[in-house]
Amino acid sequence: MADFTLSRRLTAEALGTAMLVGTVVGSGIMADRLSDDVAVSLLGNTIPTGAILVVLITILGPISGAHFNPAVTFVFWLRKELTLGIGLAYILVQVLGGICGSLIAHIMFELPVWQASTTVRTGGAQWTAEVVATFGLLASILAGIKFREAAVPWLVGLYITAAYWFTASTSFANPAVAISRAFTDTFAGIRPIDLPGFIVAEFAGAALALLVFSWLLKSNERS
């Protein structure tokens, strides 16, 4: 990343998050149109999301680190790999890029551009699921960097593919994606009023993963 200017890094983060959210929202719309079976629609939403993560992390990771996620940026700031200013700039462009992804998906499917979701996603089970989802995502990233960095795109893509199905929340695991999904009243949406619980849970899961894996990955220390 040292070879790329901050403007290029921020552009990569904005573009990557926009493409990620565009895939989440767009594939959700397509899947919902093609099937009345919610399970089939969820599968049609899951596979493109996992696939695009592999692509985006592979092509943009060398530029910005391919966070596309404020919870990931938060962890790398805690690890002192980003300054506070750069971390906040990353988060800002991630959120803005993600919102643009939702709006572009609406344009592609000839839907009203500006929407607010009415999909209810709240409660202890959903919040617990987001802690678990984000913990697992950061675990995949941190352990992947430690043991097999080249595999991180696949680890993240496969983890999110799995987490769509084993978490009650369908694994948002990303505050920027959560905020962006509040701007779409489609299959992937979440009510704006439900965002605070999701965002707190996601940052909590990320911090917990850092705490656990900072200890777990120190193989040269006596247990």
Automatic annotation (TrEMBL):
The keyword Coiled coil belongs to this UniProt entry's keyword annotation: no
Pfam families, alphabetized: MIP
Residue ranges of the TM segments: 12-31, 51-77, 84-107, 127-145, 152-173, 193-217
InterPro entries registered for this protein in UniProt: Aquaporin-like (IPR023271), Aquaporin_transptr (IPR034294), MIP (IPR000425)
Protein's membrane topology: Multi-pass membrane protein
Domain of life: Bacteria
Keyword Glycosyltransferase (UniProt): no
Annotated keywords: Membrane, Transmembrane, Transmembrane helix, Transport
Location of this chain's protein in the cell: Membrane
Family per record: Belongs to the MIP/aquaporin (TC 1.A.8) family.
PANTHER family tied to this protein: AQUAPORIN NIP1-1-RELATED, AQUAPORIN NIP2-1
This protein's name: Glycerol uptake facilitator (Major Intrinsic Protein Family)
Taxonomic lineage: Bacteria, Pseudomonadati, Pseudomonadota, Alphaproteobacteria, Hyphomicrobiales
